[in-house]
Design brief:
Elements (H helix, E strand, L loop, with lengths): L2 E8 L2 E6 L7 E6 L1 H6 L8 E6 L5 E6 L16 E7 L7 H13 L3 E7 L17 H19 L2 E4 L8 H8 L3 E5 L6 H8 L24 E5 L5 E4 L14 H6 L5 H4 L16 H7 L5 H20 L1
Parallel strand pairs: 3-5, 6-7, 6-9, 7-8, 9-11
Antiparallel strand pairs: 1-2, 1-4, 1-10, 2-3, 4-5, 10-11
Helix pairs in contact: 2-9
Bound molecules: guanosine-5'-diphosphate, magnesium ion and zinc ion.
Magnesium ion (MG) binds next to helix 5.
Length: 312
C-alpha cells in the first residue's frame, strides 16, 4: 500500500502526496469509514497509507503514528513554529509574543521568531537631526528585541517581504519538515510565504475571517510546499490562545526558558517567584539577567491562570 502525506483537507476530502510520485501531484482521497467509528480523523500533516481507487481517487486506510498534534490550526507532525510579528503596523505586542512562546514551550515545539516589515523602520543615516526620528527609535528597539530573544535561545530573524530581506534565513529553517506560521492577522505571514515560493500568490491583506467578511468563504488548512522539502501551513490559527494545557502555576515558570537555571536555585521548592524569600529568579530580574518585560508577562500570565482556576 503506498504511503503519503496529507497536504490539504477540504469538504471531507484529503489530498495526499504520494512518497513515490515525482510529479508531486496530490491524490484526492476519502477517509475509510473506520476512522469515524473510532472517533479519529486524519489531519493535514499526517503520514498515511492509502489505496488508489479506479477513478484516480483514493482511500486513506491508515494513519501512521503522529509526533505532535496541534488543535488550532489542526495540523499533525509539526516540528517548528514560526512566530510572526511585525516590527510595526500592527504595533509589536511583546506580551502576545511571550504568550505564544509559553504555548510552544509547553507543547515542546521548536520555535523561531520572525520580525517582519523591517523596511518600515530603517534608520535615516543621512539625516543631521539631533532628535532621533521615529524610524531610528523603532530601529534600536528592534535590535534590542532581537538581542533579548536570541539571548534566551530563540533564533530571531528580521525580514522584509517588500525588500527581500531575511527571506533565505527563514527558508533555511523550514527545510525538510512541517512548520506553521503563527501570528496576528496583518503581520505579513502570507507576504513572507509569497516571497519564499516563486509563483505562489497567497492572498494578502485579507480581512479577518473571524469577522465573517473575508473573501475566502472556505476555511481549510493547506500545507505549502517549499523547494527545500519544507511544508508550511499558513493559517490564521493560534489567534485566541487561552492557557489550555497549563493549569499548574509551577508549570508556567518552566515555559520561561531563561528562568530555569535560576529557579533551580530558589530557596523553596515550588517557588512561584512572586515575593518568596531566597528567590533567585527575582534576584536575576533585579540584576538585569532576566528582562523586566519577560518577568512582568510571567506575572500577568500567572494571574490569568490563577483566576481561571478560581472560576471553575
Ligand atoms: N512595508 C511592508 N509591508 C508589508 C510587508 N509584508 C507585508 N506587508 C503588508 O502588510 C499587510 C498584511 O500582509 P499579509 O501578508 O496579508 O499579512 P497576514 O495577515 O499575516 O498574512 C499587507 O498590506 C502587506 O502588503 C513588508 O515586509 N513591508
Ligand atoms: Mg495571510
Ligand atoms: Zn523563585
Amino acid at each position: 500500500m503506498p504511503a503519503g502525506l496529507i497536504v490539504k483537507a477540504l469538504s471531507g476530502y484529503y489530498y495526499v502526496l504520494s512518497e513515490e510520485d515525482e510529479q508531486m501531484t496530490s491524490i484526492q482521497c476519502r477517509a475509510r469509514g473506520i476512522f469515524k467509528k473510532r472517533g479519529v480523523s486524519p489531519l493535514v500533516g499526517d503520514k498515511v497509507l492509502f489505496e488508489l481507487t479506479e477513478n484516480g481517487e483514493g482511500t486513506v486506510d491508515e494513519i501512521l503514528p503522529r509526533t505532535s498534534e496541534l488543535v488550532r490550526p489542526p495540523v499533525a507532525n509539526v516540528e517548528l513554529v514560526v512566530l510572526v510579528f511585525a516590527v510595526t503596523e500592527p504595533t509589536l505586542n511583546l506580551q502576545l509574543l511571550d504568550k505564544f512562546l509559553v504555548h510552544t514551550e509547553s507543547a515542546g515545539l521548536e520555535t523561531i521568531i520572525c520580525l517582519t516589515k523591517q523596511d518600515l523602520v530603517t534608520e535615516d543615516k543621512e539625516s543631521e537631526a539631533t532628535v532621533p526620528s521615529k524610524g531610528d527609535m523603532l530601529s534600536s528597539g528592534v535590535s534590542h528585541i532581537v538581542q533579548l530573544y536570541e539571548s534566551i535561545g530563540y533564533r530571531t530573524v528580521v525580514t522584509s517581504a517588500k525588500c527581500g530581506v531575511g527571506i533565505a534565513p527563514v527558508l533555511d529553517q523550514l527545510a525538510g519538515r512541517i512548520s506553521v506560521f503563527a501570528g496576528q492577522s496583518g503581520v505579513g505571514k502570507s507576504s513572507l510565504l509569497n516571497a519564499m515560493v516563486p509563483g505562489l500568490q497567497l492572498e494578502t491583506n485579507q480581512i479577518s475571517m473571524k469577522l465573517g467578511r473575508g473573501k475566502h468563504t472556505t476555511r481549510h488548512v493547506e500545507l505549502i510546499r517549499l523547494s527545500n522539502g519544507g511544508l508550511v501551513a499558513d493559517t490564521p490559527g493560534f489567534s485566541q490562545l487561552d492557557f489550555l494545557q497549563i493549569d499548574e502555576a509551577e508549570q508556567l515558570s518552566s515555559c520561561f526558558r531563561e528562568f530555569k537555571p535560576h529557579s533551580a536555585e530558589c530557596k523553596f521548592r515550588g517557588c512561584l517567584h512572586l515575593h518568596e524569600p531566597g528567590c533567585k529568579v527575582i534576584e536575576a530580574k533585579e540584576k538585569g539577567e532576566i528582562s523586566l518585560s519577560r518577568y512582568e508577562h510571567y506575572l500577568q500570565f500567572l494571574t490569568d491562570i490563577k483566576e481561571r482556576k478560581r472560576r471553575y
